Amino acid sequence: NQGIAQVDPEIAAVLDGELARQRDTLEMIASENFVPRAVLEAQGSVLTNKYAEGYPGKRYYGGCEQVDIAETLAIQRVKALYGAEHANVQPHSGATANAAVLHALINKGDKILGLELAHGGHLTHGMKINFSGRLYEVAAYGVDPETHLVDMDKVRETALAERPDVIIGGWSAYPRHLDFAAFRSIADEVGAKLWVDMAHFAGLVAAGLHPNPVEHADVVSSTVHKTIGGPRSGFILSREEYAKKIDSAVFPGQQGGPLMHVVAAKAVAFKIAASEEFAERQHRVLRGAKIIADRLTAADVTEAGVSVLTGGTDVHLVLVDLRHSDLDGQQAEDLLHAVGITVNRNAVPFDPRPPRVTSGLRIGTPALAARGFGDEEFTEVADIIAEALKAGAATDVESLKARVDKLTGDFPLYPGLQQY
Ligand code: PLP
C-alpha cells in the first residue's frame, strides 16, 4: 500500500518535475491543454482496474454496474453537447477513433480524400506509412498556394476526378473554418460518405463558437484532450444508421477493453464542456489567438520576414510563416523554448525546408486560457513572441524570460496540487 514516492522515486521525480515544468513555462502547443482537477481525479482512479469489454448493459465481464453508469453518462453528455444521434466514447485516442471510422465506413482498397498532410492534414487521413495510407487508396486536396485557404471549387474538382468513397474534412494545422455544407454537397454529388475529424476544434464547437460538423457529416471523430481539455483519448459521433457499424468497428474491430478510468474522465470533461465557464474560456481562447495573429502581422514583425498564414485566425491557433525569416522553424521553436514558451515547429504549405526543420510555428492558446489568461495577458505573450521572432539570435533571452516568469507567477497552475 505504499505510494509512488516510496515504490518508485525515479518516476515520482518525473511527476514532480513535469508539474514544475508545466507551472513555470507558457504552454502554447495548440493540441495541448490543462485538464481540470476533477478530470485528473477520475483518470487516476480505481476504475483503471476494471475490464469492461462490450457496451453498457452488454458487457463480456461481470461487475460492470459502476462503469456502466460512467459510460452511459459520457455518451448522454457528449450526444447532448453536439446534438448527435449516436456516440461511442471508447476510443483510446484520436488515431484509434479514426481507424475505427474508416473500418466502419469502407473496405480495404477503397478510396479516401483528405487534406494533404503537408498542408495541415493528419497522419490518419492518408499518410503513406500510416494505417490509412496502407489500407486505403489515398487522394488529397491542398490549400491554395496564394491564400493558403481550402478552395471548395478545387475540392469538388478533385472529388469528381478521384471519386472517393469517403471525403474527410478536418485538420491538425489550419487557422480557418471549413465549409461543412459545401463538403456535404460534394460528398452527395460523388456518392461519398462525409467524415469530419474535429479533433482540434471540438471545444470551440461545444461552446457554439465554431460551425458544428455534426449537422452535415455522416460521422464525426474527435480527441478529448485538445480544445475540450479533457483526458487524452477520442470519441466518435454518428448518424443512427452508422451506430452499429461504428460500435463494432471500435470493439471488437480496433480495441479490447475500454479504459474505464478515461471514459469516466471523459464524462467529467463533457459535463464541464456544457458549462458557462467553459464557453467563457473558449472565448478567451479565440481572443488570445486573434491578439497573437494581430501582433505577428504588425509592420515591425513583417519587416523581419515573419508573417501569419491566411493573415489571421478564426480558431485557437496561429500558423507563423517563417519562409522569409532568418529563423527556421527549429530555431524559432528553440528560441521560444529558451524564453519559457513551448510551441511546435510546423511545416507551412509548400515549405522549402525539410520536415525536421520546417519554416513555420504552430502557436495555440487553449492551455493558457485554461490557466486563466485573458486579453491583457495574451497581449503580453504576443509581444514577447514578437520580440523574440524579430530579434532572432540577438534576442535578450533573460529579459523575455523574466516577463514569462511574471505571467506564470501571476497565474499559478493547479494551485495547492502536490505531486509527490
Ligand atoms: N485527428 C487530428 C485532426 C489530430 O490533430 C490528431 C492529433 O494530433 C489526431 C486525430 C490524433 O489524436 P491522438 O494523438 O490522440 O491519436
UniProtKB/TrEMBL annotation:
Q: Which GO terms describe its cellular component?
A: cytosol
Stored Pfam families: SHMT
* Major localisation: cytoplasm
Compartment annotation: Cytoplasm
Q: Which UniProt keywords apply?
A: Amino-acid biosynthesis, Cytoplasm, Methyltransferase, One-carbon metabolism, Pyridoxal phosphate, Transferase
- Site (Plays an important role in substrate specificity): residue numbering on this chain: 225
What Gene Ontology molecular function terms does this protein carry?
A: glycine hydroxymethyltransferase activity; methyltransferase activity; protein homodimerization activity; pyridoxal phosphate binding
At what positions is N6-(pyridoxal phosphate)lysine found?
226
Please give the catalytic activity noted in the UniProt record: (6R)-5,10-methylene-5,6,7,8-tetrahydrofolate + glycine + H2O = (6S)-5,6,7,8-tetrahydrofolate + L-serine
The pathway that the record names for this protein is: One-carbon metabolism; tetrahydrofolate interconversion; Amino-acid biosynthesis; glycine biosynthesis; glycine from L-serine: step 1/1
* E.C. number: 2.1.2.1
Q: Which residues form the Serine hydroxymethyltransferase-like domain?
A: 5-385
- One example of a Gene Ontology biological process annotation: glycine biosynthetic process from serine
Residues annotated to bind (6S)-5,6,7,8-tetrahydrofolate: 117, 121-123, 240
Known cofactor(s)? pyridoxal 5'-phosphate
Biological function: Catalyzes the reversible interconversion of serine and glycine with tetrahydrofolate (THF) serving as the one-carbon carrier. This reaction serves as the major source of one-carbon groups required for the biosynthesis of purines, thymidylate, methionine, and other important biomolecules. Also exhibits THF-independent aldolase activity toward beta-hydroxyamino acids, producing glycine and aldehydes, via a retro-aldol mechanism. Thus, is able to catalyze the cleavage of L-allo-threonine.
Family from the record = Belongs to the SHMT family.
Q: How does it assemble?
A: Homodimer.
Annotated NCBIfam families: PRK00011.1
The protein in question is named Serine hydroxymethyltransferase
Organism, by scientific name, is Sanguibacter inulinus
- This chain is encoded by the gene named glyA
